[in-house]
Amino acid sequence: MNEAIKSVKLADMPDYELVKSGTGGCAGCPSPMGLRIVGKALGPNSIMVMTPSCAVASIGVMPKSCYDVPVLNVCFASAGASAAGVSMSLDAQLKSGELTGEKPTVFTWVGDGGTYDIGFQGISAAAERNDDFIHFCYNNEAYSNTGVQRSGATPKYATTTTTPAGKSAQKKNVPLLMLEQRVAYVATASLAYPQDFYRKVMKAKSIKGFKYIELHAPCGPGWKFASSDTVTLGRLAVKSGAWLLWEGEHGKLTLNTPTKPLAEGKMPLTELEDYLKAQGRFSHVMKSPQKDAVIDEMKAEIRREMDFMLGREKL
Ligand SMILES: Cc1ncc(C[n+]2csc(CCOP(=O)(O)OP(=O)(O)O)c2C)c(N)n1
Ligand SMILES: [Mg+2]
Fold it and tell me: What pLDDT does 7 receive?
């Protein structure tokens, strides 16, 4: 691990703003909130690759853009290939002398639909080739932009417009797949822990090769909570164990605070019910006669994942 990159206080982060005024995102949207931190860590010498998503739909009307860096907006399947191409072209230009100075940081900003489902093969292939860019998945656990359809990242029992009675399948775990692909760097992050997220972006910037960072991104309209509660939902997810914070380099896993003390039982978990009842997409569970059994099943799944990650950390 690159120990030189320590936690930075919010007040000590650079003033640079990647997201300008005029974003068309909903109030409380996690995407611009996350991108602001990304911009502070990466700075203006960056190039962003995006696929269809809320982050693209809220960019503004051409020729205006709310993003301060060059943006390449590509189709879903090609985020991995496009970012790899941009990065390789910059390498070639630096080699030929056409470009001088520091190589711009190439990064993608893609939703969970674009990462887990539609663009997965291109991202997995870039990871396997160890192409030099950061893939960010901002995971709002649904296809929010098109009206909140379920994705591979939607948790079991959550309602979406395509799972009106609650999703019946377990969610995928793409960060874990990336860990087992032994990519140069992989991390999970949360909007409620911006210093942890900033440090992880700084670390990814310092490493050459393929980096994957997944940001848990609570979506008010999709999950049905008030726009002022985005960070509260993010914090409840981490404290209840519904979202785990960890990072890995070349397959070596480290659990981060507070996930590690929570998993080890050194800190009490927040009741999962507090997380579930703070959002409308689980309201059918809270009203169901099977409520206790469903919540017990969810808690057992969290325990299983925590135990798995504690064991995996020792490898
Ligand atoms: C190949 C293809 N299929 C479907 C669409 C329609 N579409 C546009 S945005 C979107 C949802 C994307 O979901 P996600 O990547 O999670 O981003 P979010 O909307 O949640 O920000 C879909 C399905 C498309 N543009 N291209
Ligand atoms: Mg999404």
Answer: 78
Please give all residues whose beta carbon lies within 6 A of any atom in ligand 1, as ranges.
52-55, 76, 111-114, 118, 140, 142-146, 151
The pLDDT value given to residue 244: 98
**C-alpha distances in angstroms, 142 versus 155, 161, 209, 280?**
9, 10, 28, 14
For residue 105, report the distance from its CA to the centre of ligand 2, in Å.
24
Model pLDDT for residues 296-306, shown as the tens digit of each residue = 999 999 999 99
Asked if residue 17 has pLDDT above 80, the reply is yes
CATH code at 152? 3.40.50.970
Place of tokens 């409520």: 291
**Separation of first and last alpha carbons in the chain:** 15
Domain limits for position 195: 10-313
Q: What is the pLDDT of residues 269-292, one digit of tens each?
A: 999 999 999 999 999 999 999 999
- Total number of domains in the chain: 1
CA of 247 to the centre of ligand 1 (A): 27
From the alpha carbon of 151, which atom of ligand 1 is closest? 16
pTM of the complete model? 0.97
Q: Is 37 within 8 Å of 10 (Cβ atoms)?
A: no
Query: Quick check: is 112 in a domain?
Result: yes
Q: What is the pLDDT of residues 213-236, one digit of tens each?
A: 999 999 999 999 999 999 999 999
